[in-house]
Amino acid sequence: MDQFLQQLLNGVTLGSLYALIAVGYTVVYGIVQLINFAHGEVFMIGAFGSLATWTLFFKGQTGLWVLPFMIIGAVLASVAVALLLERVAYRPLRNAPRLAPLITAIGISVFLQEAVRLFYPGAKSALPFPQIDLVTGAAFQVGGITVRRSAIFVIGALVVCAVLLWFFINRTKMGRGMLAVSQDPDTARLMGINVDRIIAVAFAIGAALAGVAGVAQGLQNSNIDFFIGFMAGLKAFTAAVLGGIGNIYGAVVGGLVLGVVEAMAVQFIPGTFGGSPWKDVWAFVLLIVVLVFRPQGLMGARVVDRA
Amino acid sequence: MSAMLEVKDLRVSYGKIEAVKGISFSVGQGEVVCLIGTNGAGKTTTLRTISGLIRPTSGEITFEGKRLDGVPAHEIVTLGLAHSPEGRRIFPRLSVEENLLLGAFSRNDGEIKSDLQAAYDLFPILGERSKQPAGTFSGGEQQMLAMGRAMMSRPKLLMLDEPSMGLSPIMMQRIMSTVKTLQSQGTTILLVEQNARAALKLADKGYVLEVGHVVLEGSGHDLLHSDAVRKAYLGED
């Protein structure tokens, strides 16, 4: 039982990280039907943004008060890069065949990885991430379960972000505008909605959450490198598809399900196919199985559509 | 009457196909003007060009003395021009109330709530089902919602594209009488219809479009009784 609860906690922790990134894929897809394959790199930039903030302004500090500044640094870096990408790379391709922005996204992804590797001081190998009081350091025990401090940060970050996001979408005018654009962009324009701005907002929201995820990743793994966006991005994309691409709550659910399944597979699948070397395999097996039986994803696109 | 909306030599193309081939017409303050014609005559394209969804290849569109061609769609709404599009195009997964509030997206004044009430007074069914997703509505109810939504921007000129499409005769009557009501309340209306009889009955002025050209124009009454229109559009001989 303890083992199960332990893996459940590990899974939810991992899943929260996936979910934070997955929202970025789904929110952009919901508005422009583009899979932004460079989103994993936006997450990576967030991690480096927070590291840079710490290195430049707070080097040597370990107090918890530094953390908000690191989060702000991460979010600023991620959002700036995402907005730049949208403006320079995706907007000119808005009316191009779908393959063009997709290939562009992959190109940008490689470009960003290499840019960080070459130009961020010391980034050719992994860089240590600052240790912060209370959110890193010795784990504590609750019953028979080991709780890592960073896990509390990650799960807490997801909860806070999900609540803020829900509020933004359902209770603000801009959020309502976003829903309108995702359902019918032309008619949204007739309502006086500036579609270009809504698209930029969608990119910014996804990037902000990815930035927070970048901090979480750093705290959890205690080091970061230019390649962390690849696997995290792929898994988060999987989570978004699993939950139903375009559906924000689906991204959160998909992330959590994926994380838990991975954690459980590591622990409970016996023999050759168990253990952590196989965890990625089981994650993608889950994706394939869900897509075979429920192609629209777990939460799916809602059925009521254009009448 | 000075022209509120003036369209001059408007040409619009989709790629190599020219859908509107140099049409001119005007809408005066307080009038109901209708554009009639068969499918492919260019009526919808004309409205979509006026509201900024499509760029014209040439020609001029002037609204209250201001050039509209080249102004982005989301800014045209703020000038007082609302467009209720063909096929109603309500937002199916949003509630009735959210749809109406989106109609007021360009506004920032404090009277949006009272205008919401005004829309519910105009169409009581919308008030009764304000929290229901709009996609569950019937065609006629969706048309009411689309008109209510367009009115939420407080337009000086309301453009209605095929409001009677697919509606029962009773519902169509209802919509047409609402058009009359809106006119009496001071809204100028540009109406596009395939149902020529219903449209011409309440129009001050009408234009008949055929494959991208204006082929006939006149008062609603004159057109309704002209031989050409009776034969081609009203199915009489």
TrEMBL record, chain A:
Gene Ontology biological process: D-alanine transmembrane transport; L-alanine transport; L-isoleucine import across plasma membrane
Membrane topology, record value: Multi-pass membrane protein
Keywords from the UniProt entry: Amino-acid transport, Cell inner membrane, Cell membrane, Membrane, Transmembrane, Transmembrane helix, Transport
Principal subcellular localization: membrane
A GO MF term: L-phenylalanine transmembrane transporter activity
GO cellular component terms attached to this protein's record: plasma membrane
Domain of life from the UniProt record: Bacteria
Family: Belongs to the binding-protein-dependent transport system permease family. LivHM subfamily.
Name under which the protein is recorded: Branched-chain amino acid ABC transporter permease
Automatic annotation (TrEMBL), chain B:
Organism annotation: Candidatus Phosphoribacter hodrii
Keywords linked to the UniProt accession: Amino-acid transport, ATP-binding, Nucleotide-binding, Transport
InterPro entries: AAA+_ATPase, ABC_branched_ATPase_LivF/BraG, ABC_transporter-like_ATP-bd, ABC_transporter-like_CS, BCAA_Transport_ATP-bd_LivF, P-loop_NTPase
Claim: Transport is one of the keywords in the record: yes
PANTHER family reported in the protein's UniProt record: BRANCHED-CHAIN AMINO ACID TRANSPORT SYSTEM,ATP-BINDING PROTEIN, HIGH-AFFINITY BRANCHED-CHAIN AMINO ACID TRANSPORT ATP-BINDING PROTEIN LIVF
Pfam families referenced in this protein's UniProt entry, alphabetically: ABC_tran (PF00005)
Sequence ranges assigned to domain ABC transporter in this UniProt record: 5-236
Biological processes annotated in GO: L-amino acid transport
Molecular functions (GO terms): ATP binding; ATP hydrolysis activity; branched-chain amino acid transmembrane transporter activity
Protein name: ABC transporter ATP-binding protein
Family membership: Belongs to the ABC transporter superfamily.
SUPFAM superfamilies: P-loop containing nucleoside triphosphate hydrolases
